[in-house]
Amino acid sequence: MKTVVTFILMAGLSLCLTISASAADLHLAVAANFTGPMEQLKPLFEKASGHKLIISYGTVGKFYAQIKNGAPFELLISADDETPIRLEKDGLALPETRFTYAIGKLMLWSTKPGLVDASGEVLKQADFKRLAIASPKLAVYGAAGVEVMKKLGVYEQLQSRLVFGENISQAYQFVATGNADLGFVALSQIYKNGNYAAGSHWQVPSNLYPRIRQDAVLLSKGRDNPAGKALLVFLKTTETKKIIRSYGYDI
């Protein structure tokens, strides 16, 4: 099966562009919510292309500041579409390379069975001590969580119970380790191939928060790096999209 997958990926790459005969390193910034899929895709891409990925995971807010200050990132796999557009306006990203690779989904999750109900009433009942959420100033999913609480009319009531993670990975860890009773996380963190992580969850209706359109874009520093162009092509292949969907994303 691995041989078949590798063949498909290599075929997709070779049809779309000529890969450099010499392998290249690619420094890329990847939104924390996409950690699971990226870790699965990384060895497939490296084997198919011969290039090497050097990955940093984090929040788009921090990545934006780092790129503005000269960080060596060559490609951004963002948690939103606004940050890539801002970088384009700053002259730090190539507009013609930007595309949407996934649509993210927000979840309310607890490791405790029965705590989170199917309609999110737990937020109104407030029968818990701590609610984890990623920093709304730095993380797209954190901002989405705040929007949900505001629309439900519980934000002011719950502020004293909020535990902020620097990014969505840290918010997830707060819940997973029991340091928070429940938390707002990305669907991709608790879902794989039709199976949810143990505990209880609520998939937040999409009308309660802005659409999480996640874009990838080649940065100016990666303009001449063949690995960057190869990765953008790779992200658009059928097999890659299948893997991304397996984590619950829409495309």
Keywords:
about 250 residues, 5-stranded mixed β-sheet, D-Maltodextrin-Binding Protein, domain 2, globular, 11 helices, alpha/beta, 12 strands, 2 domains, disordered N terminus
How would you describe what is shown here?
With 251 residues, this protein is an alpha/beta fold. The protein folds into 2 domains: 2-103 and 212-246, Periplasmic binding protein-like II (D-Maltodextrin-Binding Protein, domain 2, 3-Layer(aba) Sandwich); 106-203, Periplasmic binding protein-like II (D-Maltodextrin-Binding Protein, domain 2, 3-Layer(aba) Sandwich), CATH 3.40.190. It is 39% helix and 22% strand. It has 11 helices and 12 strands. The protein has helices at residues 2-16, 35-49, 60-68, 82-89, 122-125, 140-151, 155-158, 168-176, 187-190, 226-235, 238-246, and strands spanning 25-31, 52-58, 75-77, 99-104, 106-110, 131-134, 162-165, 182-186, 191-192, 195-196, 200-203, 212-218. Strands 2-1-3-12-4 form a 5-stranded mixed β-sheet. α2 links the parallel β1 and β2 (52-58). α1 packs across α2 (35-49). The radius of gyration is 19 Å and the shape is globular. It starts with a helix and ends in a 5-residue tail after the last helix. The model is unreliable at 1-9 and 11-21 (pLDDT under 50).
